[in-house]
Please model this.
Amino acid sequence: MAAAKAGALPEAAERLKRFMAADPSARLESVRALTGLFREAQPREMAEESLFRDLLEILMRASNEIEQACKDSSEPLDVDTCLVLIAECFRCLRNACVQCAKNQHVMRNLGLITTSVHLINLLDGMQVKEEPLLIAFRCSLQFLGNIAAGNGDSQNSIWKCAFPDLFLTCLTYSDEKIVAYCCMVLFTCLNSEKVKELMDPGNLSVALHIIKVYKERLESEWPLKCCSILSRISWNSFEVFLIVTDYLLQCPELVKALYAKLSNQERVTFLELIMAKVSEKNSVTSEEMHVFMRHADFLAGCFQEKCEAVLKLTSAADAEDEEALVTIRLLDILCEMTSNNGQLEYLQTLPDLLRTAIDTLRLTHLAGKQTVNIFTTTHAMTWQEEISHPAVGFKAHLIRLIGNLCYKNKENQDKVYELDGIPLILDNCSIDDNNPFLNQWAVYAIRNLTEQNERNQQLIAQMEEKGLADNSALESMGLQIEKQDEKLILRSARKKPS
Model:
């Protein structure tokens, strides 16, 4: 079958040449025949340069006709027929350069990339926004995506012609498919050097619109907030996801610049994307770890600056406060980062982060005692209610962060002692439906605080003796108090395996 189609290619190419001067419908049928042939690999490899010259001539002629019609409204032009022919030419070119470096090279050298970008700009400027124009627009972007695939020279050529104006045009277009195909082209063309160009003030809008596009599409595709971000990504959004995680997040200065320009809603989306990247279990290079540490430093600073915003959630009227939602996402990321040894060691050196976590735990704990709100310990919440409030689990995550920061770190263990954080954590050793796993994280934190730290052990022992610490809470942690030589000692209550 492929051989038969390859044999039909010369005849189809000759037919196109013969009908170049014929009416548009005859040219259209000739191009359609070629489009079908180029679905197979063998005919693609056999295509000659003259064929692509003919297709280029059709596109340039259509471009001139559109320009003339735009300048002079009295100039007759069958717009729909012209647009259908443009779309079919791009389909043909799109098919012809699939996994075919030879054709990609020929098309680029003929100037088809420049012509395509020029035509896209013309299409964008046309007043008619009906389906024939949209189809032509989409096919043109598909062609650019295919000619760029695996071809660095084509990628550079598209970047030179299209960045940033064409990308901004397409990313803000009302048609979802045009936005999706634009993202495909952008992702294909990006590399570490090109990402640096996004830092320029005039180009930052491209990166900002990528975040906006992702937020809008993610919300329209899967609005359930309880799902992880990865489970909510469709194939239509995957290129956008990869643009952010594989490129934008590799540049810490760009991340800072973007974050400053985003709205709070967009920051939540951006932080979810960062969370997805941080949660990856792949091994990282020393350079990637350095990038992560710079992100950690920046995000810790953001959390320290805005942490008290979460107290707005004590009011039912502010249950969806956007600044508070940002604070919650920042805490989630810091918890995840401190679960990674490389990032943990760096974050442990930030004493203000530990202080902020303890101060915020104290404020939320006090707020929950003063009035009944999301920070109040409760045992009467249904599962549906648990997932409905964004601050569910916030105190548990604060204790998780404190425990992580104190892991095998004597300086931070002592810091918690000095900040009077140990009694605060012990006061949160209870079952709380507003904070799933609160008790388990408190157990974990106390273990990390007392490991090879006699002063912290003695403090807890003295609190239990004076009745300031609930012995049942200590027992639930697997700890018990013993008195040896007039000295109180905190020991494990768990039996050693025989």
Observations:
- The CA atoms of residues 13 and 51 lie 6 Å apart.
- The longest helix spans residues 49-71.
- The beta strands are 479-484, 487-492.
